[in-house]
Records
---
Amino acid sequence: MNRVLFNAQDFVTSDRVRLCDYRADHIRRILRAAPGDCLKVGLINDRCGSGEVLEINQSSVTLRVTLDQAPPPKRPVTLLLALPRPKMARRIVHAATELGVKKIILLNSYRVEKSFWQSPLVDDTHLFSAMVEGLAQCGDTILPTLQRARLFKPFVEDELPTLLSQRTGLVAHPYASSAFTKPSGETVLAIGPEGGFIPYEVEKLLEAGMQGFTLGPRILKVETAVPAILGQFC
Amino acid sequence: MNRVLFNAQDFVTSDRVRLCDYRADHIRRILRAAPGDCLKVGLINDRCGSGEVLEINQSSVTLRVTLDQAPPPKRPVTLLLALPRPKMARRIVHAATELGVKKIILLNSYRVEKSFWQSPLVDDTHLFSAMVEGLAQCGDTILPTLQRARLFKPFVEDELPTLLSQRTGLVAHPYASSAFTKPSGETVLAIGPEGGFIPYEVEKLLEAGMQGFTLGPRILKVETAVPAILGQFC
């Protein structure tokens, strides 16, 4: 936790925040903060700043906060991600948040098992908690927006072309002939499930205006491919 | 498992391999292979090729193998990695192997807890199994070499300069002023522990001939930073 994050409801006065949960525990036990210490803080979906520790006790930590800094800039990327196996979804969403994607769209695909969509591990509560952890790790405050596209064809035919009207669309698949080159502006980056998008899906994504690219002869796990590609959008 | 890997001792004749363990299980249950099918195979630390399924039964799978292909080229990178928390080490070594690093040197650092070195999760057995899984995922056969540098100062003073005599050395730390730019040749890439190398360590690495670089204002977890940086060595 490189930045302590809070919500509007954590304020007890206009500039004081009281934390009573895992964040208070982290400040006490990991940061070993004492009254007078200054911590990096941030208001979720708002500004960053610093928080002076006013009081620490067994049940809470009170900070006087000054929110005077902009969060770090986002990478200009919308991640269009075939819904991963639920136990991997948290890790991938965490990494994508750390790396600063603006938006994550979870997409259905032939190789996404139907049961994945029902898993509590991919509900809003779990994925938002992964995002908040990712923000606290990297020092950001702005949550990526999260969308679910549970029907592949209607999304790709009706919504994706609009999304691509002002963005470059790239789809990673091992048999494309072009290597990855970083586009200059906003990008929609599509990453398939383990085993990849099926040929019909790749065709539909290309028809919608995306371009295929390959990462080379190595077939990467989704959780490796996501940071390996996002890292190139510095 | 995108390539079924085996060792010299799995051969029953000069071109036949018999598998009886998790690989046979994978071929039966996940690949659902039948006699006559052709699988991607490879001999560890040797060539890649194809394997025709000759026989499948409950206890084993027999393949006739032809090893006629070179493995994919490695990335020109030696990863000098502060020993990660043991439960993360496997995942990071797996990802680095998938991404094709040539060598991994596990390095001590002030912020590496002493107990990490004693964990069975970072012994050769565990890390080689992570590497073999990584190879099977990405379709490679050549294991990265693995070295342990349990004493920071002697390694950095006595061994690192030799390593750097024919390689560019880069150390990731958040407060460096230069952004990452991919060197043209062989590279030693140093990545610190969670919390980073301490200033004394950064200084010693720079004295040994490494150059600092920053990944920007975001502080990444080690398991995110490793693929995010390695991805740029395409």
Note: Chain A touches chain B at residues 2, 72-73, 95, 98-100, 137-140, 179-180, 215-221, 223-224, 227-232, 234 (CB under 8 Å).
---
Amino acid sequence: MSAALLQGLREALGDSQVLSEGDLSSYELDWRKRFQGKALAVVRPGSTAQVAQVMRLCAEHRVAVVPQGGNTGLVGGSVPDASGSQILLSLQRMNKVRELDPANLTMTVDAGCVLQALQQAADEQGLLFPLSLAAEGSCTIGGNLATNAGGTQVLRYGNTRELCLGLEVVTAAGEIWQGLSGLRKDNTGYDLRDLFIGSEGTLGIITGATLKLYPRPQAKMTALAACPTLDSALALLGLAQQRAGSGLTGFELMGDFALSLVRKHFPLLPQALPPCPWTVLLEISDSESEAHAQALFEGLLETALENGVIEDAAVASSLEQSRALWHVRESIPLAQVEEGLNIKHDIALPVSRIPEFVAQTDAALKAAFPGVRLVNFGHLGDGNLHYNVQAPEGGSAADFLREQEHAVNAIVFDAVTAFQGSISAEHGIGQLKREELALRKSPVALGLMRAIKQALDPQGLLNPGRVL
Amino acid sequence: MSAALLQGLREALGDSQVLSEGDLSSYELDWRKRFQGKALAVVRPGSTAQVAQVMRLCAEHRVAVVPQGGNTGLVGGSVPDASGSQILLSLQRMNKVRELDPANLTMTVDAGCVLQALQQAADEQGLLFPLSLAAEGSCTIGGNLATNAGGTQVLRYGNTRELCLGLEVVTAAGEIWQGLSGLRKDNTGYDLRDLFIGSEGTLGIITGATLKLYPRPQAKMTALAACPTLDSALALLGLAQQRAGSGLTGFELMGDFALSLVRKHFPLLPQALPPCPWTVLLEISDSESEAHAQALFEGLLETALENGVIEDAAVASSLEQSRALWHVRESIPLAQVEEGLNIKHDIALPVSRIPEFVAQTDAALKAAFPGVRLVNFGHLGDGNLHYNVQAPEGGSAADFLREQEHAVNAIVFDAVTAFQGSISAEHGIGQLKREELALRKSPVALGLMRAIKQALDPQGLLNPGRVL
């Protein structure tokens, strides 16, 4: 049975693109090394037609397919299970920019293009593709679309969903839906595009996309501000939105303990401001000039100082200084690794309710686990916190993770639910949060999702065991 | 059978909210007076629970339900068919703003709220709800969501879809999906929200929504520019996007014949510029000040004049002048009515291909129908043209419409298809374009849409005969 399938796959793709021997761990082990799978074979189609051929063969043999881009996901969504019975379909060979239309502000690309390559392709035309996230050097746009990735500029440009105008998708039956579109408006039927986006490969395989581009801003400027409380950080956000409008492209929150880990593990990194309860990194993108951005920042921060919203501030005066500020922000996850394993949460809340949520949940965790330490940072402008729980000092981080993860999650996710938040803001569900989702999503929503899955993938062949 | 249903509906809603006698034409006749239906009864639930009760009763009796908001749709999507067997469900009594959260920049509202009332509710808090369209005084947000309405600020803020964070929906089985969410990020499963948005009441009944709000701009400024060609209008668009970034909130195109009808039928309206092939109305929303917007406009128009992109320009120097410029734009549809019936098209194209499309399609129509006149105007920044075909001068507009509509549509829609455009940019499909959609949408897309419809409404009770 599987010999016939492998034979068919070799005929369709050529022997060299059907891998079933040797070290396949780069395909079979997830990025966080929590999920180790075993594929029946890794296949590497080079075109949409070949992806469709693979899917038709697998449908005929009733063999499951796990699509994979850069394999940088954080929830175990893109590796096969351990059964050795699933086909791992890598999109990495499909990595061409098919068309870039500056006058329409769009580009049409293969799903396997690496995000950074797309940023560069836009930049070479004097344009901006604004999706930006930590894994951009190796993640693919297909994976970004499948998980509706977020990142650091969501405040202004939205998630990956908002950056996509059209898709090309191979269905569970191996048909090709040609939904590539450079249109800003199209009200001709159901929104298939957004259904496939964020479905983590469980409804179809994204093979291509038409993406939005933007004029490149004339200037980008970064500042740090020291806020005494979370309420004052929110007040600063409101003021910045009022003054800068959509010029505000970044508003990142960093708790003092998160920054203290950076100071501890990377003592040579410059610290632009003295320690304070909450540090905010603001970024303005300006369509006029650096001088205009500077004036805007100065006025904004002056008002914030006068109103007692902030206690101190520093504006980066060069691109280099600006990069240094971002570097500190981006060093938080690395500093956490140095400090030891922790229990990560990628949650979203209504922005207005964040101070109350943090106060209550911090207190509940500290009561349940005396000495526990909270690494709290994230995209405050989007209501998205990386609310991570670090073991008490001196104890074993590995033991804490193993023994307390479930109890910690229960406290955090119960609070998220009570505040009408989301247990997965930007990382998705994958395998990691599937059971949690089944418990926490409303039965009506789960029923609708299952009906849609059954309608589009009746044999259950597309990335089984993920999301639902 | 239907007596038992009516009895059940009266018990659920009270006698006064189940109308089956008297003049029901405001519910049964569509806004363009092309579709006259007859309902078994008009029901007016006052709460989401009552909508669910109505749906459960209708499901039990296998009677179809046609949801209706303000009944201002242009494609016959919200009136019952002529059989007298369908229940018309009006959402108009559900018209409360449930919550407005300025710090989260959201409001949660009933589906039956009139759009203008929502604009005002936001304005009273110093905030902006940017959806704006001709019918705003009577259309409802539920209808806007069901049709993914567009309007005049899509360029900056997107269609209704982009303005919605969460929905409350009654399903075909009469269950309530509580998907109201004030979250900017939420990757927990399939995108049910966007599936219901734009589905024209065929997958569920939208009863509530959480909408995005924005800080109100400090200033809004309008200008007119005279462009010798469509290519120069596009060059002006590129320049304006580069200079103003997301401050550019309007870019409306008006062909000379469209404006000549306004001059002819409303000779007292002031004309800010002499006639020219293409007139563009630009609008800038500024988060700083009127002076800043003025300087930006002056710099932009000066460069455009120097580069030969425009031949003339006028900047409104007061709110009154600005309103007068918009008034001319908004008088085009009224001037068309005065001139007589015409054949309307609401099409979208890749922005970059519009000049070529217009040249080819104008020529094809003039060759096929000598003397035919083209009323071409629309939202150029979104690639959305209202490309309307007026009978040759002197002939009977009614005869032309009756005899030639089909042949005219064939030429226009063939060209739209060849240029990878959309036959319905913002008005939707309804009854009017259902057959055209079945002919022009790809079989794979239609197959996916039918599978979803079957999954979510297996009895086919929700707005049958629309879209699919």
Note: Residues 219-331 of chain B form a domain with the Alpha-Beta Plaits fold (CATH 3.30.70.2190).
